[in-house]
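Notes from hallway chat w/ T.B., transcribed later so I don't forget. T.B. wanted the structure written out for a chain they're using in a teaching module, and asked if we could keep both sequence and structure tokens in one place. Agreed to drop them here.
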Amino acid sequence: MTELVKTLSATRGAGLMLNIVVGAGLLALPGLVVESVGNHALWAWVVCAIVAIPLLSVFIIMGRRFPNAGGIAHFSEMAFGSAAYIIASFIFLGAVAFGLPAIALTGGYYISEIMQGHPAFYAALLILAAALFHLVSTEIAGKISTIIASGILLALLILVAIGFYAMDWSNAGENMPPILEVRIDQAFLPFMMIFFAFTGWEVAASTSEEFKNPNRDFPRAMIMSFAAACLMYFAMAFVVQNTAITGSYESSFASIAKTVFGENGEIAVSVLAAVIVFANLMGAIWAVSRMVLSLGREDYLPLKLQTTGNGSPVHAVLITSCVLLAVLTTDWLGILDISKMLSIAGQNFLILYGITGLSLFKLSKSNFEKILSTITIAVVSILLFLEGSSIIYPVSLSIAAVTVWYFKKKPEPLKKLNGIN
């Protein structure tokens, strides 16, 4: 039996999606956006949320109509075949290859607030520690990750509460321009970086198969989780924009805690941030290493991967960790910083949303859905153009994926030509 058990209601599904979507990236993003566009920061978050609505709508339709644990890769394969499945998988892996080091760097910056050393060094230690748990005991890693992940939302809400307490409410909002005075170029400047916070619903779409009534409850769960996430994002952005940051923007909430509670507050928040990042990395390395293992088994990667006696995919975990550490090294060398890593990851995820829009256009016979998918494709294309994003990276991943697909499929026609059945 390979079908998943249908246990999710709209409310439970929304909670699960929030745990998937809301993560450690929020510890750094609000400060990075303020550093980038100053008093336009909150409006930049609002713009990104508005743009995300049609993209989210496509996932709602696809997840409701084609409930499957495969998510985007499954939608792509249904619409365009196995080549599209590999392309979507490679672009996803290309996104996490930069997104996870950025999350690790978030923990590194918070640790460096209370200890001497380069943030990339501490980020590397967090990645190694998360990988080590998987190599020692998959069961222990799963339990720890689940326990800590369930508390991430609560921890972030506590940080927001601390921020509200620290704010000077008599001047709150004065440094935010009215909507009619918002500069569009400033509001869109950090879009790719912010969009990283609006990723995760492509993974949440893979839960659609587990809803008791996917047609009714899956859309409700998506909408509720999106609304709740936006409220949290706006609150965190508002707090950071209206509070004086004395430390680094990458660890803005440690600075806020120091203002309220002194050095002990800074230490407590920094430790909490490191624990949150560690939990995120454990869960992410778990998921990505299994995807690498699966692609290897299907000969989509030129790797022969094996598991240990206790079921841990050692080689896949090591390969995943080595890639993350290699990308992290670019920060140490001054080639890429956390903002650029988040932007690259956000761009890849945005392209995946565009692929889902294309899939809906191909699979749907409804005029409304074709219009919605066209809007989604247009939004993604315009954003990639306006952002001046380099498509060399995702194009290279796509070429690699098609090459792998071609050589995997090539023997079959050769056998037919030679009269071999």
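Follow-up for T.B.: The radius of gyration is 22 Å. Might be a good example for the class.
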